[in-house]
């Protein structure tokens, strides 16, 4: 220190040596170290001060001369400067660990004081100072931090409690970490009961169908396994009481410094929405079923409308028909099963339809099933329906006849043709009111009124074992017998006229009418085919009619058409005198003129009613002394004065037939009822 020629103040050696950091006095122009303290000697020469003083400043910093020139030049120019680009020796890794500070002592060419600070040591001092600060103020700071986290937690708890959706968290092991009140309310568990337990094993262990739900398939666990958000719209959580809770939920992963540490699950109860969806689906399914049923009913009814040869009403005035109508009136208001028996073609279906239309079920359809036309293997499908895929060819669901007739009437035509092995299934449905479609386990209730018809003697079939006795008793609650046409010949003219008057039957032009001769032939015939055969004969006559005259063609020819009038045994036929014959002919002419309103020719004229030419009628009127014009006035002309023949006339009137019984048992039946009725009203 004796080499220093400048004044360092009082006791400069002690002050210089006392510096904690390495310090040097350097002559930058001579590149010499003029002085160095103990810290500099330890740093630059390993503690040997003599080795530093007098040495080249540049040699102490090998390879750093350009940086030294820049540093010293800046100190001389600015008066003070610092740099971190220098180091006592090259530093491995290229990062500087020292900071050089220089201060100029004298003029622009004077020496400079350089201090060297160890940056690592400075960082340690800073850390110690910060630790000392925390040691001094730590309690207050920690309390402040604690209050901050408590406030955050309180706000989070308020949010969780206010949330209407269930929220709970799980860690990366699947253990429940927290649970909000909404989740407790929906699941029935308290937070204390779930926190710390395996979430999946507690509330998510089974699928809705009861099968085991493996935790590897759990979307909630998937969130912290793959780090992705998982959303499920329709699944089940299991409540504490074991009942299912239908939920939709979202499982979101929780990350800490890029590492997934768990997941938070937000779920909501969709039970009411799902119930509403199920009700909507059921309603839509019911609508579809009703639509399909209505379509089938419509197709069935259209098919019924297209059927030819079926008239709606029961026509007839005989005692047998009146008895049948009284029976229909008695049984129609009830739901009792009816068995209609009778020969083929006697109108058993008409009786069934009359019962249905007079019942409270008339707003629903009457479904007809021809039991004789159903193959054995399709019996169940036809009656009860089938599900899609129930058998080969079952490409879609099919509604059976019982379902079609639900709320209405099922008419089993030819019920005696049902195979014996299928009768038991029909009996079970009639007893229980339930059916099952083929290939389906669902039981469906049906409300059906059954009317059966047969041309067989079912009692005889029961005796010989061809028909089940219990089914016969089930069907034969109220029996009705349809009388054959040969037992009620007085209904034949009424039926024939009804068939002639049906729209669309007669050809274009003048409608044909029945003559007295036609009526006699129809009444005399035996009619083994009953009403159906009569209808066919009338339709054939309409087709072959010419000039308004029907051509009645009866099987077996004319000999079979006319039947001798029955007379008492041992009694000779009545003898008709010439006077009686003339009186009979005159009466016929009078009635024809009255019915025609005095018109002789033309449509509805007396000639047409009598089936003769107008010229022939004119001759007969002249011979009988009758003037057709007199019948055009209001009052009727007086009849012959009380002759024996005219006094013996007996007239009968019904709704559609006028008959005149002549002496000797001969009877004339009026045929043009639709034209005679107005005239008869005027005569009355």
Task: Describe the 3D structure.
There is one protein chain. The protein has 5 domains: 112 residues, PAS domain (Beta-Lactamase, 2-Layer Sandwich), CATH 3.30.450; 107 residues, PAS domain (Beta-Lactamase, 2-Layer Sandwich), CATH 3.30.450.20; 176 residues, Rossmann fold (3-Layer(aba) Sandwich); 75 residues, Helicase, Ruva Protein, domain 3, CATH 1.10.8.60; 106 residues, no CATH class. The chain has a 5-stranded antiparallel beta sheet with strand order 2-1-5-4-3. The chain is 41% helix and 17% strand. The N and C termini lie far apart (171 Å). It is an alpha+beta fold and 684 residues long.
Gist?
This protein is an alpha+beta fold. The protein has a 5-stranded antiparallel beta sheet with strand order 2-1-5-4-3.
Helices, strands, pairings?
Layout (H helix, E strand, L loop, with lengths): L11 H6 L4 E6 L4 E5 L1 H8 L19 H14 L1 E4 L14 E7 L7 E7 H44 L3 E6 L4 E4 L1 H7 L3 H4 L4 H5 L15 H8 L3 E9 L5 E13 L2 E11 L1 H36 L12 H13 L6 E5 L5 H10 L8 E5 L8 H6 E2 L11 E2 L1 H4 L4 E5 L6 H13 L1 E3 L6 E3 L3 E6 L3 H6 L5 H7 L2 E5 L9 H10 L14 H9 L5 H14 L13 H5 L16 H19 L9 H5 L3 H11 L19 H4 L2 E4 L4 E4 L5 E3 L3 H11 L1
Parallel strand pairs: 11-18, 11-19, 12-15, 15-18
Antiparallel strand pairs: 1-2, 1-5, 3-4, 4-5, 6-7, 6-10, 8-9, 9-10, 13-14, 16-17, 20-21, 21-22
